[in-house]
Amino acid sequence: MRKSDSVVKQKKASSHLSGLDIVLNQMVTIDRSRTMEELNRAIQGILEYIGEYTKAGRAYTFEFIEKQSIYRNTSEWCAEGVKPQMDNLQAVPFMEMPYWHRQFLRGEKVVIEDIEAAKDEMPLEYRLLKAQDIHTVIVFSMFHTDTLWGFIGLDDPILDESQSLINLLTVVGSHLGSAYDSCHKSNLLDEKQNALQASIDAFQREQRFLQVLCRDYISVFFADLKKDYLEILKVDPEANVLQVSASEEYMTLSYKEIIESYCRQFMMQEEARKLKKRLNAERLMRELKTRDRISFRFQSLPNGAGHEYFEAQITRMAIDEENFKVLIGFRFIDDIVSENLDKLQSAGRYIQRLVDDVTDISQIESGHFHIEPAFFNVMTFFRDFQDIMGQMTADRKLHMTCRAHDILHPQIDADAIRLKQIYVNLVSNAVKYTPEGGMVHFELYEETSDSPGCVRLVSIVQDNGIGMTEDYMKKMYERFSRYVDTRINKVRGSGLGLAIVKELVDRMNGRIEVQSAVGVGTTFRVVFDFPFEEADSDMILQSPMESDLEMAGQSSTESDLTDCEGMHVLIAEDNELNYEVAHEILAMHGITSEQAENGKICVERFMEAPEGTYDAILMDMQMPVMNGLEATKMLRKMDQYHGNTIPIIAMTANVAKTDMDKCLAAGMTGHLAKPLDIHALIAALVSVRKREMQKWRRRIKQW
After folding, report:
1. What are the transmembrane regions (predicted)?
2. pLDDT confidence tier of residue 443, bands split at 50, 70 and 90
C-alpha cells in the first residue's frame, strides 16, 4: 500500500509540475503581448488549462469598465456540455456584486465552497450564482498599482484538486492586471500617436486647401461657424467686403455680422435673401457634416473692378464639440456667366427661328399665308437691313459689305416684312456656311422693268463660303433639306429657310437664281417687279416705321446704351421667370423695372403712379384677368394719365404679321419676339428714349 501511495503522489507531483510549466509559459506569452488581441489569446490558453485541471464547468475573465460602472465578460472556456454565458454577461453593474467588488478593490480573492453558506454574507452574489445553477466558485481580482482591471473566475471547480493552484492563480490575477495596465498604456500611446498623426495630416491638408484657395480665389476667409468668428486671410483690394470690414489687414470679425452687412449694402433684396440663407451658419454645419466642401454662385452689386458675379467655395477643415472650422474662398465668374448667357441667347434665337419657320410653313400649307403690299421707302428699308446684317455677323470674323445703288424710285408697293424675311434667310445662310475670314456681300439696286408702272428691284447675296454641289442644288428648296459638310457640321438650322424663301418669291411673283461651286462660294440673285410712285426728296429720307409697327432689333451704339441708363419700365408679365430674365437684362444696362402680374394690375399701377414714373411699358400678350391687347386699349383711352402717349412694346411669341397688326390696332408702338433678345430689347428702349428727346427738342424750338 505504501509503495502504491508513493507512486500516486509522484504522479500527482509530476502532473502539478507540468501544469505549472503550462501556466508559466502562458504568463510569459502574456508578458510579450503588445495588443489586446495577443493578450486575449494568451488568457484563453490559461483559462483552458485551469478549467481542465480543476475540472471546472466554466473558466472566465471579466473586465471592469470604470466609466460605465460595469463588468464585462471578455473571455470564456466551457467544459463539454456546459452552456456558454459570455453573451449574456456583457454589462453586469458592479452593484449587483457589491461584496465581490469590495474584495476586488482591495486586490483580494473570493473562494465559495458552498453558495448556501454564503447566502447571508453576499445575498446579491448568491442570487446571481443561484440563477446559473453554480454551487462553488473561485474568483481572483486582476489588480495592479491601485487599479482594478477586472477578475478571473472558475465555476464549480473540484476544490480538493485545486488547492495547490489557488496561490498560483492569485499571482496569475495580479499578472493579468499588470498586462492589462501595460496594454492600456500602449493603446493610449497608440491613440495619442494616431491623434498626433491625424492632426499633422489635417494641418497639411488645411495648408494644401489654403494654398489652392489663395491661388485660385481673389478673397479667402477662415471662419469658425460655432464661435461666430471670421478672419480675413486674403482679400482683393477692389472687393466690396473691404468696405464692410473697413480694413485690409488680417483681422477677426463676427461671421454673422459681416454676412448681414454685406448683403444689406451690396445685394439686391431677393439676391440678399438667397445668399443669407445659403451662408447661414447652422445650415452650413448640417451640410458640411457629410460633405467636404460646398460651392455655389451669386450676384452682387459691381465691386471696384466691375465684377458682379461670384462663386463661393466653403471647405470643411476641423470639427469637434466646440469648433466648426471652415475656409471660404470667393472668385469672380463674370466671364463664365457672360459665355453661358451668350449660349442661352444663341439657343433662344435658334428656337425662335425654328418656330418662325415652322409657323410660316404651316400657314402656307393651310392657305392662311398672305402677301400684304404697302408703299414704303427702299432706302430706309436698306438702312434697317444694314443694322440687321451687322447683328448677324457680330460674333463672326467675316468681312461684310452692304451696298445700294441706282435707286431712282425708292417708294415701292410691296410687302416689306416678307421682303426682309427673304433677305434675312439668304444672308443668314451665307453667314452660317462661310468660314471665319470669309466674305458676305449684299447688294440692292434698281433696273428698268418690262411691266408698265413698275420698277425692277434686284438683290444679290454673295459669299465665298463652302459652296454647294450640283446634286444638292437640285433639292435645296425642298423642306427640311440641309447641306451636310464636315467643315460646318456644327451649324444649326431647321432646313426650312430656302423652302420659305422660294415660297415667298413665288407668291410675290419674283424669281430666284443661284450659282454655286464647292470651295468657291454661292451667289443668289432675287428679282421682283413692284409698282412705284413718284416721291419728293423729303419722302425718300422718311422712315416708314415711324407711322407703322416697329420691329425692335436694330443695333445700338455704346452712347445709345448710355442714354438708356436711369429709365424706369413697367413690365406686364404673369410668368415670374420671364419677368426675372427681363429684369436682369435691364438692370445690366442701368434700367430699373417693376412687375405687374396681369393687364388689369398694369393699368391700375399706371393710373396710381405719378406722371412720368414710367418711361415705357413692356406688355405680354397672354395674361390672366386682362390680356395685353385689352390693357393697351384701356391705357390709350386715358388722356388725363398720359396713357395715350406712353410707349407700349409688345412681348409675344406670336410674330406673324396678323398678330403684329393686332398690336398696331390696339395702339402699341413696338414689338419684341420671345424669347427676349438683349440687343432687341435695349434697341427698342433706345428708340423710345430717342423719340422722347426729339419731342422735347421740337417743343423747345416752338418756345
Report:
1. none
2. very high
